[in-house]
Amino acid sequence: MKRVVEIDTTVPIPIGRPRSWSGDLAIKMRAGESVLFQTEQEASKLKDSIRHYHGNQAATMRKVPRIGWRVWRKK
Asked: How far apart are CA 56 and CA 42, in angstroms?
């Protein structure tokens, strides 16, 4: 039994996954800027994204009493 295979020439090669909201924000942030979050989970996601795109020592996160969590891009 013969197999019929069609070759497509018009299908583009996939580029990869799009960045998440935290990745987009991390790319836009400059050294010294910060963002305030209500939850530790959101703050931690941004901190991890900053470290991914700008280096391991590029972000810090602190709790702001009765307000939430703040994330800074350090370098």
From this structure: 18
